[in-house]
Amino acid sequence: MAEPSKKAKIGVILLTLFINMLGFGIVIPVLPLYAKEFGASGFQIGLLFASYSICQFIFAPFIGKLSDKIGRRPVLIVSVIGTAAGFFIMGAANTLALLFVGRILDGVSGASIATGQAYLADVTTREERGKTMGLMGATFGLGFIFGPALGGIASHNFGPHAPFYIAGALAVLNLGLVLRFVTESLTPELRAKASEKPTEVPQENRATYYRVVAVNFLSICGFAVMTTIFALYLQERFNYGEKQAGYLFAFIGVIAVLMQGGVLRKLLKKEGKELPVAITGALILALTLGAMPLVGSLTPLLLVVAGLAIGNSLLTPTISALASLCAGAEAQGATLGVYQSAGSLGRAIGPLIGGALLAFDSGAKYATTALFASAGIIIIALIVLLTVRPPKDA
Question: Is 342 helix (H, G, I), strand (E, B) or coil?
């Protein structure tokens, strides 16, 4: 079989990541109700959701480093198999414990997202890195747009087990794509180099890398505070239900796809634009989060939500690209594994902060403290980002 072109390799990896995110999104609207069937308490449901991010936090660095040593393809294959098994276990679960087993297995396997990022870094040049990470972000956005809708429809028509089986089947389809089209992106020389010595960021880029990792943790944590309480905020402030919340989440997803799939690519045409674009994104995100408690009608709400989507779309892919640019080709898995691990930790802590701060407000000021805290965390991320210097060629 002929060697696939660079575009084909990028396309297949993006497609596999889309299917992964589609499967993840499918279970979002049904998992809490499904867990309730097994008598899960509110705390246990929260823990069930958090277990996915906790597993990614623990395993992403290990899996990333492993992919540096043995190659991206075998890690992706095993991870996709684990994802399929996790969904099928959740679909067949007859106890809460078995539901946790499936969720944890899915979380461990989901830590391979860093391997997908590393694969994209392997096959792109320095100039292409930011634009490619933008396409990856757009792919995630599409998965989150269509996944929850598909999960809700499947659950309504075929029962609560159906979304998990559909997600498992999609993972099997994903496995077929990886086996058929994904060739190894890491040369034997680079794998040998990674095995001979620890895969690490060069000394001259470490300060930049650690700060970018910190920005990733803070930005995801701050954004997760908002997303956790968003539906409750809409209900209390605007008397909106699940349908309206779903429309607004889809609105965010559509803007994210347009920004990361098109606008961002134009902004990053010139080399070295990742840092100023990231700073702009963090500033927009902080301002719109700070304005969110002040809106009282639909039109300003839509403007604020659009600002959230634009700011996050400018920030997330560009700091991913900066993290990747800090290390050489033999260390992409380990570098992006730690980066993803920090994001997973933020994704686990953010909801805890948001939920705890809801107790401080009620009535017309509901969620004000939590939203200001969300903006404050992003401001800290912006301050850290302003101290970052562009990475040198690794």
Answer: helix
Tell me the pTM: 0.77
> What six digits make up the tokens of 191?
């794998």
Round to whole Å and give the CA distance between 245 and 62: 37
Same domain, yes or no: 139 and 37 = yes
DSSP-derived secondary structure letter, 160: T
Q: Count up the domains in the chain and report the number.
A: 2
Burial of 227 (0-12, 13-18, 19+ CB in 10 A): middle
And the tokens for 233?
């905020």
Alpha carbons 45 and 393: distance in angstroms, whole number: 45
Give a yes or no: residue 116 inside a domain: yes
d(CA 347, CA 338): 14
CA gap 107, 99 in Å, rounded: 12
For every residue of 3-51, DSSP letters joined together read: PPPHHHHHHHHHHHHHHHHHHHHHTTTTHHHHHHTTT--HHHHHHHHHH
- Whether residues 283 and 330 fall in one domain: yes
One digit per residue, pLDDT tens: the chain, 394 residues?
Answer: 566 677 777 887 888 788 777 777 777 667 777 888 888 876 787 788 778 888 888 888 888 888 888 888 898 899 889 989 999 999 899 899 999 999 899 888 876 777 887 888 788 776 776 777 777 777 777 777 777 777 777 887 888 888 889 888 988 988 888 888 888 877 777 666 655 655 577 788 899 999 999 999 999 999 988 887 887 788 888 888 766 776 787 788 788 888 877 787 788 777 678 899 999 999 999 999 999 999 988 899 999 999 998 998 899 888 988 988 888 777 777 788 888 889 888 988 888 888 888 888 887 788 899 999 999 999 999 999 999 998 886 5
Return the exposure string of 108-133: e unless at least 16 CB atoms fall within 10 Å of the residue's CB, then b.
Answer: bbbbbbbbbbbbbbbbbeeebbbbbb
